[in-house]
Design goal:
The complex is a heterodimer of chains A (115) and B (108).
Chain A (H helix, E strand, L loop, with lengths): L4 E3 L2 E4 L5 E6 L6 E7 L6 E7 L2 E5 L6 E5 L5 E5 L8 E8 L10 E2 L3 E5 L1
Parallel strand pairs in A: 2-11
Antiparallel strand pairs in A: 1-3, 3-8, 4-5, 4-9, 5-6, 7-8, 9-10, 9-11
Chain B lengths: L2 E3 L4 E5 L4 E3 L2 E3 L5 E7 L6 E5 L10 E2 L10 E3 L8 E8 L5 E3 L3 E6 L1
Parallel strand pairs in B: 2-11
Antiparallel strand pairs in B: 1-4, 3-8, 5-6, 5-9, 7-8, 9-10, 9-11
Classes of the chains: A mainly beta (115), B mainly beta (108).
Chain lengths: 115, 108
């Protein structure tokens, strides 16, 4: 298993545009979480999905949305891009939604630059 | 408020020296605490968690509920320990709350 995969690796957009980021979890993992990591900061939680349902949402505007597909892959969508959306977007997968020992495995991230 | 604080952005030591990366947290309840590490050009990965009480790559961390701390320690640093280290907290959901990270540089 290649682990969590994300696409694309890098992306450059201009203000006002829309972007879709994709994530494939580890085989057998049903939960996917998205994090935003701005340069110099730690990852910040955006969403968690489990069994195609949203299970958690961080403090992000409605321009951010996500969904999970029947094969447990996930997309993160960001509308009306702002310069401040420039960041590394991380996807993490885990077996379940909570509980001790429920380790999250991170993907390599998608580097989004908004000009 | 739920918060993780890592006061040092950069910690530089020489090979063989002891290392302590500080982490303090704020959480009303009984959180799980983790240390994640990111080596150069690699993805974020779990180093250790407080419930495991194990030593990984010579690193240990003890949860001190009285001081709300979860400092990461290693008695003898190695050059390959150079990386970015993040302390993280998990409450009653799967959401991880990360600190801002500490870059550890180990010089030969």
């Amino acid at each position: 298993d290649a682990g969590v995969t994300q696409s694309p690796t890098h992306l450059i957009k201009t203000r006002g545009q829309h972007v879709t980021l994709r994530c494939s979890p580890i085989s057998g993992h049903k939960s996917v979480s998205w994090y935003q990591q701005v340069l110099g900061q730690g990852p910040q939680f955006i969403f968690q999905y489990y069994e195609k349902e949203e299970r958690g949402r961080g403090n992000f505007p409605d321009r951010f949305s996500a969904r999970q597909f029947p094969n447990y892959s996930s997309e993160l969508n960001v509308n009306a891009l702002l310069l401040g959306d420039s960041a590394l977007y991380l996807c993490a997968s885990s077996l379940a939604t909570s509980g001790s020992g429920n380790e999250q495995f991170f993907g390599p991230g998608t580097r989004l630059t908004v000009l | 408020a739920q918060r993780v604080t890592q006061p040092e952005k950069l910690l530089s030591v020489f090979k063989g020296a002891p290392v302590e990366l500080k982490c303090n947290y704020s959480y009303s309840g009984s959180p799980e605490l983790f240390w994640y590490v990111q080596y150069s050009r690699q993805r974020l990965q779990l180093l250790l968690r407080h419930i495991s009480r194990e030593s990984i790559k010579g690193f240990t961390a003890d949860l001190n509920k009285g001081e709300t701390s979860f400092h990461l320690k290693k008695p003898f640093a190695q050059e390959e320990d150079s990386a970015m280290y993040y302390c993280a907290l998990r409450g009653n959901t799967d959401k991880l709350i990360f600190g801002t990270g500490t870059r550890l540089q180990v010089f030969p």
